[in-house]
Amino acid sequence: MPPHQSGGSSARTARAVTLAVVIAAYMLSFFHRFAPAGIAHDLTLAFQTTAASLGALAATYFYVYTIMQVPTGVLVDTLGPRRILFLGGLVAAAGSVLFGLADTLNEALVGRTLVGLGVSVTFIAMLKIIAVNFDERRFATLVGASMLVGNLGSVLAGAPLSLLAQSISWRGIFVGAGALSALLGVACWFFVKDGGGERPRFDRTVIFGGLASVLKNRSTWPAVVVNFGLAGSFFSFAGLWATPYLMRVHELTRAQASSHLSLYFAGFALGCFFIGTLSDRLGKRKPVVIAGAFLYCLLWLFWLTNIRLPLAATYCLFGLMGLTTASFALTWACAKEVNPPMLSGMSTSVTNMGGFLAGALLQPLAGWAMDQVWDGTLANGVRVYGPDTFRVGMACMAAAACIGFVASFWVKETGCRNIWQAPRPGP
Questions:
Q1: Is the pLDDT of residue 203 over 60?
Q2: Distance between CA atoms of residues 183 and 175, nearest Å
Q3: Of the ranges 12-21, 294-303, 349-358, 415-424, which is most confident?
Q4: Residue 1: pLDDT over 50
Q5: CATH code, domain carrying 255
Q6: Which site in 43, 79, 205, 392 is 20 to 30 Å from 398, CA atoms measured?
Q7: CB 161 within 8 A of CB 35
Q8: CA angle 314-266-92, nearest 5°?
């Protein structure tokens, strides 16, 4: 009997507690993911970085996160989420403390790498827990609701982080975040239940065979590319470049720019919930993804023009951008529903890898492109980038978004259910 159909109130309570603890860890991972945007100015001053170096510092998280997606999918499908969430929390704690205490850019890079390594397991573990513990017809809704709550961490990485960093310093914040990571890791050990569902044995033949079947499945790849384009441009823009862009091009104060970022994240959180719920209620995936990706790409045109808009207009655009960005949240369901149910961890991790690979590439690429057209202006020894320079960086991210939109037309419609069929044996 599937786990979501078994047990009484105690079983339901256990599943709820398991999901709540993982969502709390997911909140912290979102905070770490987008924190560089809120303190970009502080990091530039602390380490005297160029745009390319700042992009590399922020992207280090995404490099290791990308590399870990497939191994994480394998681990949650074999060992279960509990053990890797515990270890991940401890590694992220060490990295956050090191990042907060770093005296040099290299030390900060190591700390950021450890943070990325530690939190890289959280999301796939959460998807696995939802997949094996709850009704698959509610998968997108539950993922959206979890992301709605989890995204509070990204909201905190906007205006609240920027304001707090000016009063108690960004270093103290990351030391505190490290302590919280350790506590959540321990909580996962005691409260997370791996749940039911069939798991493959930890056998290399079984594991590589399962991974190969996901990778060979042509229906997997459109979701991966959509995630690459939409999530990647989101991670690059909101994760680093949005705040300095708004301050320099639109001449907003740091508080105004960071509040735009918080509104973006709030819109994204709401979008994840409502888009997932809409998709489940319509019984369709593909048209929702296409419509959201199209609107998201249209909004990039405003940032490419560098037109100065009223403050109310930029707030509205950032909120709308957050809502439409959330369309990529359906890609995990799209990939899961065209692959074997027992390989849900692997299929979602392969899809998730697309967005983080793009984030890892786009953050330093945008910075490198801006350095190529920088006019040499300095202020207190720090490079100053003008509107035309930022346009080049924005173009890199907009191009990725367009790639995701085009790929959305190849996503396979599943009707919000698993449509995978085992290959028929030969004659």
A1: no
A2: 13
A3: 294-303
A4: no
A5: 1.20.1250.20
A6: 43
A7: yes
A8: 120
Distance CA 166, CA 159 (A): 11
CA gap 380, 159 in Å, rounded: 25
**Across residues 238-244, what is the average pLDDT?**
87
pLDDT in the model for residue 14:
81
Instruction: Report the SS3 class of residue 202.
Output: coil
Supply φ then ψ for residue 224, to 5 degrees.
Answer: -65, -45
Domain that holds residue 240: 8-194+202-410
CA distances from residue 303 to 225, 314, 365 in whole angstroms, order as listed: 23, 10, 18
Domain count, the chain: 1
pLDDT band at 146 (very low <50, low <70, confident <90, very high): confident
Q: How confident is the model at residue 198 (pLDDT cuts 50, 70, 90)?
A: low
Decide: 416 and 234 in contact? Cβ < 8 Å: no
Q: In the 8-state DSSP scheme, what is residue 413?
A: P
Q: Is residue 16 part of a domain?
A: yes
344 neighbors 128 (Cβ within 8 angstroms): yes
Closest CA to 405 of 273, 286, 265: 286
